[in-house]
Amino acid sequence: METVLISKQKKANQLINILAVAIPVAVAVLLGIRQKVDLGSWTTYLPHLNGIINSLTAILLMAGLYFIRQKNIAAHRLTMLMAFVLGSVFLVSYVLYHLSNESTAFGGEGWIRPVYYFLLISHIVLSVVVVWFVLRALYYALSGQYAQHRRVVKWAYPIWLYVSITGVVVYLMIAPYYTH
């Protein structure tokens, strides 16, 4: 019986590690495609949707923390699963937008320019890093390994919250420069 559990754990770890590498690599490759695909003008609204998704994700993350501190496990589980689903929807929306639209250049000048690029770069780097942590935290929670879940969440939560909040801030900073 213990051998079966170890085997399942090993397979889950392998899958998490593969996804944590494959997702950012796939996104980078898709973003690197210079020939844009015409998916229709509706895709020009996706950055606005992404700003909303990041806002809702941040709210859900904070609500999830509140609920677990109140020992309301059912509400915590629901809000965190909703945050995970929104993160997945964001990823699809982000890729669709960048497959079909040119990137928007930031037009700010002066002191705001380095602030914007610091936030953008830290957001991008940490969004790559957080994938592994979130997948691992989700796996541990769903498999009932709560001690391991808590250990991973000590890293996953602040990174994920930072990525969600900076996603909104970066969106608000670049939104005036969208041409559509």
TrEMBL record:
Pfam families: DUF420. InterPro entries: DUF420. The chain crosses the membrane at residues 12-33, 45-68, 80-97, 117-139, 159-178. It comes from the Bacteria. Keywords: Membrane, Transmembrane, Transmembrane helix. This is DUF420 domain-containing protein. It comes from Nibrella viscosa.
